[in-house]
Amino acid sequence: MKHLAAYLLLALAGNESPSAADIKAVLSSVGIDADSERLDKVVAELQGKDIQELIAEGSSKLASVPSGGAAAAGGAAAAGGAAEAAPAEEKEEEKEESDDDMGFGLFD
What we know:
By secondary structure, this protein is mostly helical. About 70% of the residues lie in helices and about 0% in strands. The chain has 6 helices and no strands. The protein has helices at about 1-10, 20-30, 35-45, 50-65, 70-80, 80-100. The chain is extended, with a radius of gyration of 25 Å.
């Protein structure tokens, strides 16, 4: 990820085809050692491709990925009785924590 981020920074700065040496220079400027194997793979995969088109393509793919609580709700339904017991325990913990202030408010 750090290699890709450095590549994108260089591309945003106007370097349309950053080399491995360019990316290593960016990473070393912030104290990060570049992994040569991964760096070579990133450069090879992005060589000759338009960054703006790749970002647009990736954004359209991400738009189709479900997000939010739907997956968590499905997992809780599959767990059955164990999922029902967990909220009760959480409510008990909240009551215990509310007693910690011993009746004194922050601005009293």
